[in-house]
Specification:
Number of strands: 11
Largest sheet: 5 strands, antiparallel
Helix content: 25-40%
Order of helices and strands: HEEHEEEHEEEEEHEH
Strand order of the largest sheet: 5-10-9-6-11
Strand content: 25-35%
Structural class: alpha+beta
Radius of gyration: 40 Å
Shape: rod-shaped
């Protein structure tokens, strides 16, 4: 074989080996890429929308659109009853204290549009819900609203015992005279810092059935059972109540003195006529 033919043969074999090497490298790279894509697909996180709170909220608070936002979370950590849209949570009451960033779930919400307004679900375990008549001027003007902080003043009559007088005779003996019980009027701050849980409204309509106004019929108050019992007693005894509105940030416990006839006389320097 001539040297020229040998050189050509060697060149052809070299080209074939080079092509085979290139093809092998391409196949290896494709296999590695396919394997990496399969791993990425297996490890890719699938996310879904869920409604979360933008700040802390308390039991019985009503959710407004500014209180919540939609966040994307891995679907495997989203509970089955998670709320996924702003509209589904807006206007609902929450049944327990919740913190910022917490997911809003269907069982966390009370629907105010059903027959009983889900009010029993927004009560603490140590409270009872009591209906309180709205007969005072503040209520007639429909000033208090749900969630407001109010104080309840009461005026009532109560029969009290009076202190008897001692009389000393000329012989030096002392006799006691008992006076008959008398009925006196008292005005007191019956309860302070009461939150209005809900309102019962009377809807006023015109002759065509169109709503013209709303009037508060009664308040629904979440109270300690003993406080509810005291309030019932005052109501049953015919006390006259007035509701006064506090600032929403007020937490002060006022130190008030019950008002009686004697208090007014002393306060204004009045004299009792004979």
């Amino acid at each position: 074989m001539s040297a020229r033919l040998r050189a050509i043969l060697i060149s052809v074999i070299g080209v074939i080996l080079l092509a085979a090497g290139i093809i092998a490298v391409i196949l290896l790279i494709n296999r590695i890429n396919a394997k990496n894509q399969a791993v990425e697909q297996q490890t890719q996180v699938v996310k879904g929308p869920v409604v979360v709170l933008t700040h802390d909220m308390k039991l019985g608070d009503r959710i407004e659109s500014t209180d919540i936002s939609v966040s994307e979370m891995p679907v495997e950590v989203i509970p089955r009853d998670a709320v996924t849209t702003i509209e589904d949570a807006t206007g609902k009451f929450i049944k327990s204290d919740m913190v910022q960033g917490e997911m809003v779930l269907q069982h966390n919400l009370a629907d105010p549009t059903n027959n009983n307004h889900d009010l029993s679900f927004i009560l603490a375990d140590n409270h009872v819900l009591m209906a309180f008549p709205a007969t005072d001027l503040m209520s007639q003007e429909t000033i208090p609203q749900r969630g407001d902080i109010i104080d309840i003043f009461a005026t009532f009559s109560e029969t009290v015992k009076t202190v008897g007088s001692n009389t000393t005779t000329s012989q030096g003996t002392t006799t006691s005279t008992e006076e008959a019980p008398i009925t006196r009027d008292f005005t007191i701050d019956a309860f302070q810092k009461v939150s209005v849980t809900a309102l019962v409204m009377d809807v006023v309509t015109d002759s065509e059935g169109n709503k013209t106004s709303e009037k508060i019929s009664s308040y629904l108050l979440a109270l300690d059972p003993q406080d509810a019992l005291v309030l019932k007693h005052l109501k049953d005894e015919g006390a006259t109540f007035d509701v006064v509105l506090r600032a929403p940030t007020s937490t002060q416990q006022f130190d008030l003195t019950p008002v009686t006839e004697d208090y007014i006389i002393e306060l204004y320097g009045l004299e009792v006529l004979p």
